[in-house]
Amino acid sequence: MPNLAANYLKYHRYFMISRLLLFFSILTISIGNAQMNHSLIVLKSGDSLNGFGKLKFDSFKYKNYAGTDKREIDFSQIKLVKIKKSDTLTEVYKFFQTTNSDKFVAVLEVVSGNNVELYCTYSSYPGMGTGMNVGMSGGGIGMGIGMSVDNTATYYFAKRPSEEKLTALGNYNPLSSTLRENVLKYFSDCKAVTDKVENKDFRMRSGLEQVAAFYNENCN
């Protein structure tokens, strides 16, 4: 009987671990598929592609609806991408080099105008208290997940219509940020803007959308 109980306990633990691994495998596959959204890709060659896709570090992962065409397209080959995130939200990405790098980056246009265009990228990082614990006790498996709301950092770029490359302005960080300095330098041709920045009418923590909009309306 003791051997039978021990074997049962051993089998039960093995069974629970197997189910847990299967759960995480399914979860991983589901998350991977969920990241692939309906997308329209416009290439610099003039061709357009429709299917599922997602942004990667320096390329766009694409597959057509039939699943017969799967590839990664380098950012340098893409003019723009429209990604449908939901029924009410479609994100439009454009692709540029920056003044300090030959690598192409995917950016969202947040302000357009005759004098300046403002672009950005978003990155998320977990808040304090993120973690997961898995343990076994008495033949059972317990799993606990604790997670706080993710924080989002916005990194800004600007480009005038006459410029081919983006100028990186940076992101707001109250402890160590060059955003204000970069904004004053880039918009130094318009005193009305720099005065508002100096007088804190435009605060960097509020974003640069109002700065770019004001520049388009009041500066040449």
Topology:
Elements: H1 2-34, E1 37-43, E2 48-55, E3 59-63, E4 70-74, E5 78-84, E6 90-98, E7 101-111, E8 117-125, E9 131-137, E10 140-146, E11 151-159, E12 167-171, H2 179-186, H3 191-198, H4 209-218
Antiparallel strand pairs: 1-2, 1-5, 2-3, 3-4, 5-6, 6-7, 7-8, 8-11, 9-10, 11-12
Characterization of this structure:
With 220 residues, this protein is of the alpha+beta class. Helix content is 27%, strand content 40%. It is built from four helices and twelve strands; from the N terminus they run αββββββββββββααα. The strands form two sheets. Strands 4-3-2-1-5-6-7-8-11-12 form a ten-stranded antiparallel beta sheet. It has a two-stranded antiparallel sheet with strand order 9-10. The longest helix has 33 residues, at 2-34. Residues 20-33 and 130-138 have low confidence and may be disordered.
Computed CA radius of gyration, to the nearest angstrom: 25 Å
Through-space gap between termini: 90 Å
Number of strands: 12
Helix count, DSSP H or I runs of 4 or more residues: 4
Q: Could you spell the SSE succession in H and E letters?
A: HEEEEEEEEEEEEHHH
Task: Walk across the major sheet and give the strand order.
Answer: 4-3-2-1-5-6-7-8-11-12
The low-confidence parts are 20-33, 130-138
**SS content category:** alpha+beta
Based on CA inertia axes, which overall geometry fits? Answer: elongated
Arithmetic mean of pLDDT: 82
User: Into which percentage range does the β-strand content fall?
Assistant: 35-45%
Can you summarize the main beta sheet?
Answer: 10 strands, antiparallel
How helical, in percent, are the residues?
25-40%
